[in-house]
Write a structure and sequence with these properties.
alpha/beta, Rossmann fold, 7 strands, globular
């Protein structure tokens, strides 16, 4: 997939803050942050290194598990967006024009089935499949995104790309019911995700940032053991916790100024 060069990104960012009459348009700290996060995701070798680190650990944990007796066949459960597929071009495209997430344009994006992959993810999932480990894709994409999602998985020859193993959202964003369905037939040896509700039902409730941190402290031994976390600074439930489900740019900017630590 063609990605914008840094000069092009900077020029688009410059142009986006001016209205057609030459007067400065209102800018958003939140959207500027999303552009910066997308740039990091697309360009930073450190981001790639973090992803490789996560999936290298996943492979080590899988190898160790395969040496143990297990009554049920093993399965790996993975999220899709920002865990397997890279949607940063969509995020950057909206944010650089000072626009919020929009469900209609999001589905236009996913229907194309052209997302790049997160570094290390395809090779790990193919490795798991080569060891006889089933792969379940549990995603909060909607059912009407199935065709585009399957097309994108097929683009990279990802394993278990069928209706049984590609499990989309139906009634609720909580993934617990769908994980329990997998557990009826398989033992889940690893869960991969970028958002904490990808791992545990304890994260499903509406939370403040502090209480999410308390749950994370409670579950700390599972991270890097059973829970494999992929970095995503662009979006996620961490935003909801910080902004208390306030979604306008003005609200987000006000909360950001109030909560971020600064030095003057």
């Amino acid at each position: 997939m063609k990605k914008l060069t840094l000069p092009a990104l900077l020029m688009l960012s410059f142009c986006s803050v001016f209205a057609q009459n030459g007067q400065p348009a209102p800018t958003s700290i939140a959207n500027n942050g999303k552009v910066w996060a997308s740039l990091y995701q697309q360009r930073a070798a450190e981001y790639k290194a973090l992803c490789f680190q996560a999936y290298n650990i996943a492979r080590l944990r899988l190898d160790a598990a395969l040496k143990k007796h297990h009554a049920k066949p093993y399965a790996v459960v993975t999220d899709i967006d920002e865990t397997l597929l890279d949607n940063s071009p969509y995020t950057a495209g909206r944010a650089i024009n000072n626009q919020d997430f929009d469900a209609t344009t999001w589905k236009q994006w996913t229907a194309k089935g052209i997302c790049d992959t997160v570094p290390g993810a395809p090779s790990f999932l193919k490795y798991a499949a080569s060891k006889g480990v089933a792969v379940y894709y549990i995603t909060n994409r909607d059912e009407d995104e199935r065709a585009g999602t399957a097309k994108n998985l097929k683009l990279y020859n990802l394993p278990y790309n069928d209706n049984t193993h590609l499990i989309l959202k139906t009634t609720t964003s909580s993934k617990q019911t769908r994980r329990l369905e997998v557990l009826k037939t398989h033992e889940i040896v690893l869960l991969c995700g970028d958002n904490l509700p990808d791992f545990d039902t304890l994260y499903d409730a509406p939370f403040t940032g502090q209480s999410r941190n308390e749950v994370t402290e409670q579950l700390k031994k599972k991270f890097g053991s059973k829970y494999i976390v992929i970095p995503n600074a662009g979006y996620g439930d961490w935003e909801n916790a910080i902004f208390n489900h306030k979604y306008t740019n003005a609200q987000k900017d006000s909360v950001t100024k109030a909560q971020v630590k600064t030095f003057q």
